[in-house]
């Protein structure tokens, strides 16, 4: 079967790819930027990639006409707090136009549970997308889920951030709202189980785990599993906006996502039927088991995908290829070079930078900079990194974004997503003579940009110099060749 996978570089899309390939399907991945599809070369050789932005004017000729089925995994909740519902409706309408030129028989859409009488803007938008897709000339299967629990999912990472960092929480009343979490493994089973299943055509199903829990119970259970001490005091006076700021500063979520999540957390998301579970003979995984399975993946460094690697977790929505050519003129630079005697180890050190490993020098200063970035509305350092020693173009890396990660060419290029009065790049490259070149480039925006750079020069002298020396720390003696 030839399958179109939209949102292929998203959290769910990345999880689906190996299952669909293993089942022998031919896969066409639709992404806005093919360079951001973070799959290895072996997987990339097995799939076709098309670049489509479903918010732009449709060009149906971009898709092959022999598509048999499609997954619709597009959402815009994290891109805006005002008009994301309009964007989601437009994307669904354009999707219908694209598929009108194909032979597609079935579309599978992962939505949210919409059984409450009063829905949030997010859930109302999900239902609107469902209604729009039903107008397409294909058979629609809708899977409605509550929060998804798995390593790298936004819900799991937010709960993890809260419980791991705060022994005492003063929380708003929405922590008493009930929901029915579902394990990511069950979600994948449902998504693959309905594929080509004609009894699921033109039907909508609720999917959920076996437990109905309040958000407070979910956090307490998480803390119990992790052996943490947690006390929660809920108060009725915290406004949605204040709750959103609270989530934003404590967790790795963006403010836009936090605001939309808080709005949805006021709505109960509980399944009304178990028809699909019985049809597909799926055994639901409990919330506690889902948490344990997530940590097995984390501890084995086998996290397939993370919501943080999506562009919506950062500051920039445009094609990052625009920034991949580092400018030479009108820029301020710090250049460091060092001779390596163990270039293989140095390369591994470069590929392991950030996250728990840190930045090899003055990590406290990096943390302070991340805290200040959060205060100024930036992403801070809390995104970390998805893998401990693997990097792909488009990955988030603390408050940087990976533009280029080429181990064969021995080069890593990062672009800053922190709040700065200008644009910043950080570049490492090992040449044929085994000399490591480290270049920090800053293109200032006006007078404030130049003042920012020169005020940071004393810190740059120690931080960048210490960083390159410690990247090559396995060398008994190192000599700095240049520093300008």
TrEMBL record:
Domain NAD-dependent epimerase/dehydratase, first and last residues per copy: 3-95
GO MF term set: aldehyde dehydrogenase (NAD+) activity
The protein's name in its UniProt record: Uncharacterized conserved protein YbjT, contains NAD(P)-binding and DUF2867 domains
Superkingdom classification of source: Bacteria
Residue ranges crossing the lipid bilayer per the database entry: 451-468
Assigned keywords, A-Z: Membrane, Transmembrane, Transmembrane helix
Species this chain originates from: Leeuwenhoekiella palythoae
Cellular component annotations (GO), alphabetically ordered: cytoplasm
């Amino acid at each position: 079967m030839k399958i179109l996978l939209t949102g292929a570089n998203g959290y769910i899309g990345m999880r689906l790819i190996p299952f669909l390939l293993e089942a022998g399907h031919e896969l066409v991945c639709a992404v806005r930027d093919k360079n951001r599809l973070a799959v290895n070369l072996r997987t990339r050789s097995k799939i076709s990639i098309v670049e489509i932005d479903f918010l732009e004017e449709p060009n149906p000729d971009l898709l092959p006409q022999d598509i048999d089925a499609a997954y619709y995994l597009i959402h815009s909740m994290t891109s805006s707090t005002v008009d994301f519902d309009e964007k989601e409706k437009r994307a669904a309408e354009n999707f219908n136009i694209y598929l009108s030129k194909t032979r597609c028989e079935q579309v599978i859409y992962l939505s949210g549970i919409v059984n409450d009488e009063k829905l949030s803007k997010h859930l109302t938008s999900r239902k609107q997308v469902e209604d729009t897709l039903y107008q397409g000339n294909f058979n629609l299967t809708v899977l409605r889920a509550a929060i998804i629990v798995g390593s790298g999912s936004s819900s799991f990472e937010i709960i993890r951030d809260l419980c791991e960092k705060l022994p005492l929480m003063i929380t708003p009343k929405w922590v008493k709202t009930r929901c029915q979490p579902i394990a990511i493994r069950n979600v994948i089973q449902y998504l693959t189980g309905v594929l080509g299943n004609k009894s699921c055509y033109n039907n909508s199903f609720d999917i959920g785990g076996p437990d109905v829990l309040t958000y407070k119970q979910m956090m307490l259970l998480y803390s119990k599993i992790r052996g943490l001490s947690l006390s929660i005091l809920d108060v009725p006076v915290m406004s949605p906006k204040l709750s959103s700021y609270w989530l934003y500063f404590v967790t790795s979520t963006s403010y836009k996502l936090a605001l939309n999540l808080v709005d949805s957390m006021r709505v109960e998301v509980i399944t009304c039927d178990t028809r699909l579970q019985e049809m597909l003979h799926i055994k639901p995984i409990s919330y506690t088991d889902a948490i344990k399975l997530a940590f097995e993946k984390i501890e084995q460094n086998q996290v397939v995908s993370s919501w943080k690697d999506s562009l919506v977790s950062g500051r920039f929505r445009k094609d990052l290829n625009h920034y991949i050519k580092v400018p030479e003129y009108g820029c301020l630079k710090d250049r460091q070079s060092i001779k390596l005697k163990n270039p293989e180890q140095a390369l591994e050190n470069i590929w392991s930078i950030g996250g728990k490993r840190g930045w090899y020098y003055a990590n406290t200063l990096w943390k302070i900079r991340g805290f200040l970035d959060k205060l100024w509305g930036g992403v801070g350092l809390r995104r970390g990194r998805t893998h401990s020693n693997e990097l792909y173009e488009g990955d988030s890396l603390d408050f940087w974004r990976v533009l280029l990660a080429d181990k064969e060419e021995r080069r890593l290029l990062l672009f800053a997503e922190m709040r700065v009065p200008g644009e910043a790049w950080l570049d490492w490259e090992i040449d044929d003579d085994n000399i490591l070149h480290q270049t920090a480039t800053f293109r200032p925006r006006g007078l404030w940009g130049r003042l920012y750079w020169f005020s940071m020069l004393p810190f740059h002298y120690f931080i960048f110099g210490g960083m390159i020396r410690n990247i090559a720390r396995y060398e008994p003696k190192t000599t700095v060749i240049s520093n300008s």
